[in-house]
Amino acid sequence: MTADLITEQPHDSTTRIELGAMHLAVIRHEQVTIAQLPQLFDPGFTALGAAIAADRFQPTGPALAVYRSDPQQPFDLDIGFPIARPLTTPLESAGLTIEPGAVAAGPAFVLSQIGPYDGLGAAWGKLMSDVVAAGATPAVLLEVYVTQPTPTTNPAELRTDLFALLAGGQ
């Protein structure tokens, strides 16, 4: 049985799950660094939001980021939303290209971070430590922004679910 991307209750401890496959609408960036993320996320999510408002695609879940290689080195990044069916053609929005993307089904570990985004580093550290302790190797990392940030959102109430999708069906 595969787990839903979002559960009602946060994952207070690292939990192993089987994640279902997802189609995504994403803005793709190649060979970026952690320091560049603020420059990519705001315009990217603005363009994605404009496409949603224009009914170009409809998300089936919250915003997410897919880290397709080790974020300690230059890495490939997709930012976007899960969608029910794959995009058939790329979309232009606010000067950026929204492309079809996907996350494959398979085993993963998940942990929720409750609080400001500056706590994500420590949460990722805990998750990755737990993954290594379990003898597993992460292949793809996924951040799901369960709580939509708004100007009135209390940062202490933000929930971000972190997923480490495992290599080779471990």
Structural overview:
This protein is of the alpha+beta class. The protein has 2 domains: 86 residues, Multidrug-efflux Transporter 1 Regulator Bmrr, Chain A, CATH 3.20.80.10; 82 residues. The chain has a 9-stranded antiparallel sheet, with helices on one face. A hairpin with a 7-residue loop joins strand 3 and strand 4. It is globular. The relative contact order is 0.22. This is GyrI-like domain-containing protein.
Write the layout of secondary structure elements.
Blueprint: E1 15-19, E2 22-32, H1 37-53, E3 64-67, E4 75-83, E5 91-93, E6 96-103, E7 106-114, H2 120-133, E8 138-145, E9 159-166
What name is given to the CATH topology of the largest domain? Multidrug-efflux Transporter 1 Regulator Bmrr, Chain A
- What is the architecture of the largest domain at the second tier of CATH? Alpha-Beta Barrel
Name the beta content range. Answer: 35-45%
The level-1 CATH class of the largest domain = Alpha Beta
Keywords:
2 domains, single chain, Multidrug-efflux Transporter 1 Regulator Bmrr, Chain A, 9-stranded antiparallel β-sheet, 2 helices, 170 residues, alpha+beta
